[in-house]
Structures are given as C-alpha cells and as structure tokens.
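hi!! sorry for the late reply, been swamped w classes. u asked for the two structures so here they r. pasted raw, havent cleaned anything up. first the sequence of the first protein and right below it the tokens
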Amino acid sequence: MIKPSMKPYILLIITILLVSCKTKTKESQETQALEISSSNQELVNVFNWATKKALGFVQTGKSGPINISERNEAPTEASYIPSYWAGYPLRTAFYSRDFCHQIVGAHLLNLKEENMSMLKAFAASANENKKWYPLWAINFDGSPYQLDYRNDNDFVREVPAVFELVEKAYALYQWTGDTRYLKDEVLWNYYSKAVTDFIYLHDNFMPNKVAEGSGTGSIFKGTATFNEQRDHPFIEAGDGIACQYKALWAYGKMAEALENYELSAKFLQQAKDLKTYFNTKWGTENTNSYNRGYTLDKSPYSGWGKENSWFMPMKNITISTSEKTQDYLTFIDERLESKDDIPDNIEAISYIPELFFQYHHNETGWKWMKYIISKIDQTHAMSNLTGNNGNYPEVSYVLISNVVENLLGVQPDAANNKITTLSHLPLAIEDLEVRNIIIGNSIINLQHNKKEQSKLHYKKGKSPLSWEVRFSGTFEHLYIDGKKIACSQGQEYGQDFSYISIKLDPTQEVLVSTR
C-alpha cells in the first residue's frame, strides 16, 4: 500500500515516464533515430513503442528527487549524472542487474555516455570494505540508493551481477570501440578485482575457485543467484558460475585487445578450465540433466530454478553442441509453458528470447518475444511499484536489442569496423530492416528477407567496413549483387552456416543472397 504522503512523488514519477527527455541526449536521437520496416506490423508497432518508451526513462541533464521508494517519505533533491532508469519506476535508481540487461538497447539509442557513466558508478562503488561487491542500486546522482544499502556490511548483493558487469563492459567495447572501457583506471581495477580478489574472498565453504553467496538466501547477506523466488538457499548457483565463466572470458578478451597477450592467455585458460569443471563435475555429477546449485551442506540440486537454470546455456558454460544442452533448452521451454513454473515478473522472462535465438531456435525465440509483447499492457506482478509491465524499463530496452541482436543477428566489432550478421527471422516475419544502427563511429542500415537475402547500406563512416554475412545452411556459392561467388562454411551453436566477407566503402550498399 502506497502511503498518501508519497502521492506527490508518484505523480512526479508518472510525469517523468510520460514525457520524453528534452536533453542534449534526446536531441541527438532526432537526427539518427532508429527506424524499422517489416512485413510484420505487430513488430513495427512494438519497436516504435519501445524506442519512444526507453528514451522517456533517460535522466541525463536533470535534477530531481533521490532515494524515493515505497518506504521513504522524505527524499532529497540532487543533480543527476548521465543515466537512465533501470529498475522499478517508483524507485529513483538504476540497478546493476537491470542495467546489464539494458545496455545494448541503450547503445542502439545512442546512450553511450549514459552507459559509460552508469558502469563507472558501479565500478567505483566496489571496494575492499565491501569485499569487491559493487552496489546493487545507485541513485540518479550517483550516490548509494538507501533502500538497498545500510552500510558496507549490510547491503543487497547477488553474485551474478558482479561478473555480468565485466562481461557487459566487453560487450560495450564491441559495440563502441571506445578504449575507455579498456583503459579507464576505475573500470580496469574493477574488472581485475572481480576476476581475482572477489573470487578468492568468496570461496570458503566449497573451495573450488567458484565465487559463493552466503548460503542463507538473504539478499542483504549476499545470494549466489538472481532467483529470489522460492528457491534453495544456494551457496553456489548456476547463474553465478555461468556469469563467472563469461567474466573470465571477457577479461581475457579485453586483455587481448590491449595486446597484453600473457594476461589474456591466463584468463582465457581460466575460463576454459571453469567450463571443463562445470561440464565434468559441478554441473553434471549425479544428474542426467544439469545441476543448478549447491547448498551449504554441499548437496547438488538439479530441476527447475528459473535464472539459475537458463543462465547456464545463455552464458555458454554448457557445451552448446551437445545433446544434453539441446535437451535442456527443451526442458526450459516446457517449464516456462507451465503456469506453476513461469516467473511472475515480466523482466525475468525478458531473457528468454535471446536464449533461444542464440541457439537458432528461432520459432521458440519469437514465441517468447510475442509472449512479452502480449503482456505489455497487463498489470505487473509488483503493480504498486510499476503499474503495467510496459512501465518496467527492462521491457522496452530489451525489445530493442531483441530486434537488432537477435532477429537481425548482428555481432559487432567496432574496434575493427566490422559487423557479422545472420538472419534469425521466424516464419511470421518475412522481412525486416532496421536503419541507423550505430557501431562505433559507423552507421548502417540492415535488411533481411527471410533467410535468403541480406542487404547492408553503409550509411556513414570514416573507413571501409568489413561485413561477414552469414546464411543458415550449407552453400557452395553466394551471390553478391547477383554475381556468383564461392563462399566458406562454419558452425555456431550446432548450426551450420555459409558466409562471405565483403569490404564496403562509406555510402555503399550491397545485397547478398543464397540464389
């Protein structure tokens, strides 16, 4: 129940949600706004809704209240750092878990400084006193959000978020090519502590080089999992170990980008060793499926655990080409189809489309995308904090990344001015084009027609763009603007594909097809 004294602040928040930001950041969107065309009008409508909705959450250049929550009746005023809402709309803060899931959508909306500012705020909040945990939630002015922070020994913390911040920093580097993600001292110190000291300091009850939570289930003591709903009080969890694997890998890749090859080899090997440990012992011992967590008595648990189930294949710690992983994907889909097992909160389900598109289960990915779209106007599980599902920021930001990363299959490499694409269009979407996709300093338009044609317009850039265009299936030749060219073959997540690499000059447009 919201107290009457909170009503003025609720009205303020509603106003913020309804009015798009009139800031320099917003103005920059008007010149290079994302645009979409498709035979599927439902997708067009929801994408246009999502871009407008997501921009309405931007707080850059504003001042306003901080520490607003359902428990606080006396918020103070402050000037905001470059940021956007990532969490419940009643709470004036951005949360680490939500932020990690929203960063690609934010980048595509040209919120590059917001992403940098927010990541640095989390990185700077981690210190020796907190045993290198970052804050769980931060006010729009960059200060600790008091609802979730009491002192350095008593604050909300979840193991997977520590590692996701490292993984997503590398993702932002791939999208932007911005060397600050590699060379900023605050950021690099955080990455380094997360993959070294943090693991060492939180590996006490089951010494195995896997970071642990408290094993109590208390978010203020530290949980091993993102799943806060009716689960075992794990000391180690599937999403925690999976995110740790991805962080070790990302740190190794960032070291490689810095040409520190010795450091890179060390951490890429650690990532490989952790994956081997998972697939030979931690995740597979005494089960025909996958273990998803261990309790304080070192007992393993398999079965269904929401985030600590689907994060394992999503973060690639399982063997993607194995029959066991494919069976597990079927298990995840079946559990989500169950009224008893599907999460109540829409933001948890927002991970599911990317999981299935990643494994080329395009029809299943689209099924869950459509499920989310169908629930946008329905009441959120925490309606007193959010209202309708569409008011939860993660929904709009992630739908944007679903379209570009998942349906269009865009993999960026901004530092080398390179893009890789592969159509994941389901049968319900005959064609899809998104214009003004930002990759580093370049802007492209990309269009797929079914899984047979891909067209790229290199709209703006300073140097030649490398395009590796892929098509599902095995072909001896592909056609570049109608000209037959021999191509190469590869495999990703068990899916065979054929590809060809092309260099485009700025303003050039190229059509590649399978026939």
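now the second protein. again sequence first, tokens right under
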Amino acid sequence: MINEDSNIQYLKGVGEKRAQALSRLGIFTVGDLLRYYPRTYRDWSKLTSINDASIGEECCIKAIVDRTPTGIKIRKGLTIFKTDATDGESVIKIIIYNNKYAAAGLEPGEEYLFYGKIGGNLYQKEMSSPEILKADLQNNSIHPIYPQSGDVNSKYIEKLVRQVFIQNPAPCRETIPENVRDSLCLMEINSSLKEFHFPTNEDLFSEAKHRLIFEELFILQTGLKKLKGNSKSDSNIIIKNESENFYKTLPFEPTGAQRRAVGECLEQMGSGKLMNRLLQGDVGSGKTMVAAAIMDSAVRSGYQTVLMAPTEILAAQHYGSVCKFFESSGFDIELLTGSVSAKNKRIIKEKLISGETDILIGTHAVIQSDVIFKNLGVVITDEQHRFGVKQRNSLVEKGNMPHTLVMSATPIPRTLALMIYGDLDISVLDEMPPGRQPIETYCINSSKRERAYNYVKKHLDEGRQGYIVCPLVEENEMLDLTAAEDFAQELAENTFRDYSVGLLHGKMKSKDKDEIMRNFAEGKIQLLVSTTVIEVGVDVPNAVIMVVENAERFGLSQLHQLRGRIGRGKFKSTCILITDARNSTAHSRMKILTQTNDGFRIADEDLRLRGPGNFFGSQQHGLPDLKIAMLTDTFILKEAERFSQQILIDDYNLSKPENQCLKKAVDRLFEKNIIMN
C-alpha cells in the first residue's frame, strides 16, 4: 500500500517522463504531492444561468451540448472548434482553440459544467477556452487549482491526489505529538490534508488550514532551535569591558543607542554565559562601531575575533573601517576573501594558527576547513540573513563555543526575527549618529524622467556624486545584465555625456568591482549606474542623489536599503523613484517610502505585502520556503515556538517514540532546503 514515503512513480499514470516533470515542481514522493498545496479553488457548485451571466465576468454554467463541435482552420497551426450549449432557457456559444481532444470529448445531448469568462454580447453570449467537467455529483463541487508548469497541469495533479486518498485514506504519519494536538484541538493530519485539497465546507477547511499552518511552523521552529542549540549555555570565554578606553580613541561621540548595545553585549560576555545576540540597526546607524568596540574588548581579553560579510565589497569596507578604528592599537588585522592570492592566504592562515592575527575579516572564505584559529572568542556576521544556518554554524565551530553577534542592516519585523533567530537576545540601534539628515524621497512617472536627470546634473555640477539604479527586466540575471550594460552606455553617450559615468554589476570580477568603487570613492566617477549590488557595502559620503528606475519591481526593504547609500555625509540627499505602475498596491508601497525613513515601519509593511519568501529577495534569507504559513499569523507562530520549546526541553534529541515522526519531518525539511547550505 502506498504511503507518504512512496516514490511518485508508484501512482498509476506516472511514468518516468511524468515523474521528471513532477520533480521540477519539487514532487518526488507521495508526501511531496500531498503537501503541494492548491494556490486557489474553483467552486463548480455555484451555478449561474446563461441569462444571469454577466459579460466580462467568470462563472460556472451547467448546460447540455447541442451538437458535435465543428472545426474551422483559421491558419496553419490554428483550428477553432465551436458548438452551442443550452441550460433549457438560453443558448451560449462554446469556443475551443486548437484542442481537438477537448472538442471531441463534448458529446451532443450530454450535460457539462463550463467554467470561464463570459464574452460576446447580450444577444449572443459566448465562452472561449472554458474549463470543462462532466456534470456528475463529484465534479459539481469545489475543485483545487494548483501551481502548474508546462508539462504538468492542475487537473493532472488533482487526479493524482484523489488517487492517493482512494488507494490509502491515511497515507501520512502524524508529525505533531498527541499531547500537543490535544492541547490545541488540532485536526488529524490525513483529515487535514484531504480537507485542504478537497474542501467540504468553510468551517472544516479553516480547521484543516489552521492545523497545517501550525504543523509547518512547528516543524520549522523545532529544527531551528535544534540547530541553534541552547543559547543560555555556560561559557569559559570571559570578555572584560574595555569600552570606555575604546571610546576615548574615537574622533566622535558614540550615540546613546551604540553605548547601550555595546554595554548589553559586553555585560553578557563577561557574565560566564554564552552570548548569542542580534544587533539590528537601520542603514547608517553605526553597527560597525559597535562591532569594533566588542572586538577591542575581546582582543584585550586575549581572544581572536572574526567578522564574516556576504560580499567582497562589504568585507573590504568593514576591513577599511576596522583598520581606521584600530589605527594606533597595534592589533594585527587581516582580510580573507576569495580574491586574495594563494600565497597571502597561506600566510594569513599560518598567522591565525599561531595567534599572531587578532582580527580576521572576510567572506565565506573564512569558514573553509583549513582556516584554524588559536583562540577564537567572538564571531560576528554581517547581513546574517544572506548566509544559510549551516554556514553560520561552521564559523561558530571554529572556536570552543565563542560568543556570537549577528548584525543586520535590514530591519526585520519582530515576527520574522522570532522565526529566523529564535531565542537570540536582540539589541536595536534606534538612533542615528549626528549629522545624518533624513533622505527626501519622491515618486514620479517616466514623463518626468528628463526633469529628474536634470536635477541629477545640478548636483554633479556642484561637485557631488550620484547613483542611477538600473531597471529590472525580470528575474533573469543575464537579461538584467544586458539591460544594465545597454542602459549605462545609453546614459554615458547621451544624457550624461559631459560627465564621467561608471557601471557596477554583480557579474563583474572582484578586482573590477573594487576598481570601480575606488574610482567612485575618489571622485573619478561622478555618476555610478548600478544594479542592486550597491544595496550593501557602498559608503561614499559625497553621493547625495539617487534615481531608481522601475521602482515598483523592487521590494520596499530593498528600496530602503538602496537609498541608504546616499545621505551618508553632511549634504542634503534626495532619492527619486520612477514608476509607471498604475495599480493601487504599487502606489501605496511607493507612498510609504516618501513618507518615512523608518526602516522598521517599512519592513513591517514589506512583510505584510510580500510575505517572508520574498522579503529578502531570491532565497537569501536562509529559510525553507513556507508553503502555507504566513508570518502575519503571529499567534500561531508563537504557539508553535512555545510547544517546540517544551518538547525540546523534555527530549532535545527527539529520541522518544512519540517524537520519532517529528524528528523525521524536521530532518526531511532541513535536508531538502537552502537552510542547510
């Protein structure tokens, strides 16, 4: 008998070719199929008479086919089949394009359900390319509509799911322990799955959905907590608080928020307990200074520290900043990235082993197996959501339970932070350093582009610099790259031909990126045309103007990150968003950016509008994609966290018999997803 572990090819009608097509949708087993959830539903039970059907509206009509459809060849490769159908009162014309099998399936005198948009006119209504079902009791109900590919359509997936439940009404094991289900009055797993695919009524559907959302968040929370381990462990690494001496070396006065964050970190690191802390701060709030203060105390307490950044540009910027902070300290600071020569890599690694190097800054190159520290005390990761959990753990494992600080310049809503970071303590930099002015943001349509570009020229003529962010074509790196190159060339040869224009994009070699950025920082390039590679890691105080093309194609948080590249000096700065989008959602999103510079408010709105899967962009958040749960379901998320915590306190390794299915579900989820990469 088939069950959730059965290969999808065990189902009737799934051969090798179909199995390959299903695998492209992530369906390898029967369990994958049952958790390939409908994206919406079509209610075939709500029937409309032909008379009452409104032109331009979708509806379901039950009607008897009058005659065999006739085919008319319009041109090579296009045949149109037409027939009439009646509901006893009126007649509607049914039109089928290029599908002789669907047309041949319509038998005169038989009754069918036709679902589609009504066309034609009041005197002769018609329905083109309708979905068609035989009008029997099974079909006259709510049907699931699944995400589909060219090789696998929704009807085929529905047929397979029905087949599973016919062959085995209970194909799935229960993942949620009985005591948890009883406490929350949750529906049994197989009943939930069947009800969610084939809803009986609204109440049962809601109950099934609630259970499946809880299950998804419960398994994810349990796995994340196991990966993170116990954040309240004892620690033999005692860091003395040397921050006041460090502050005396600074050419500026730290903000109250910076002092508070440093104090929270060092108090914990000096307490004999392990620190696992998230430092959240909006663009330009001074996270690097906080990191430097912690590094200073750690090195003076006899420990090495490491800072890992997601890109070479950002790693190089941190290296430059940290070197300035410790100019007169005598600390040995090294930069390790993929572009460092083999000879220098070998020297850096030898110095780490001997303990000669105090501070290492780098990209994921720092987690290579041959990077060995003598006495690692503090691990810092920047833009943490861009690393998978396993990558971050690999860095922590370089030491004997070092203290961990994770930093993010992407303000993360509380619900998302709870999910990604679990029980980490959180410090927030909610105060900007003196001199940082709010960035004025405007939204215009393309008819005013020339005026916006003239405004850019005005700033360039005054000796300032600016950015123009390339328009996104689609989620295709090569197309976007071509568009960026063509766009930059067009601007350099025409609109901005009297200015020095540079291009920066993610496909450039590291040395070429560095050269472009160095030239921009030194003022040799006045206008930098860029893709979103400037989202993090570019800090040029003289840059005061930014234009973002096709702004509606970016997420709110991403746009906020982009505009954070300006306004980093003493000059007034302006961001201009260009969009021709006419829908109300796009306008409301742009309006938020023109009204506030508060990254946390923007992040909350971004999460609400786009969901967690797209919050950080293309799978950069390190989380498995949520199939059904939404992080706006805050109450369910908190319940899932509470019960996963209770189970792990009682049975951390999930070794008890009642937790075996939960353990398998956790292992399966984390093996299949990016989180383990």
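hope this helps!! also noticed smth abt the second:
Residues 243-429 form a domain with the Rossmann fold fold (CATH 3.40.50.300).
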